[in-house]
Amino acid sequence: MSVVIIKDRVTQKDIRKASEEYGVYIKVVVDIEKNLLAAGGEWHADAEKILVEKGSKQKNLWGGGIDLNAKNIETVALINLRPNQGNNSQEILDAEIREKFIKIVKEKFRL
Length: 111
Hints:
Layout: E1 3-6, H1 12-18, E2 25-31, E3 36-40, H2 44-53, E4 61-67, E5 72-74, H3 95-109
Antiparallel strand pairs: 1-3, 2-3, 2-4, 4-5
């Protein structure tokens, strides 16, 4: 499991480590309140666990991924399935949350 925490911008070293599991596709979990991103790992839950251990609140953590070749950002992850928060899908359904998630991923990955 190779998860890296990105506070500012992703570096080539971060990308090498985060892409160990799936190559050009990197799973990401974003704390939309703290503007933090965790990249890499086999499961989104790997990154989610690390962020919670570092003080993030689970309700602020949303998952997805990025295809480095296509520069495509996805907003689908099992950790997004939260009926108690009104998200009855693996997709981030709330437009505001989805926009925050995408904005943070774009900033961190310079897209």
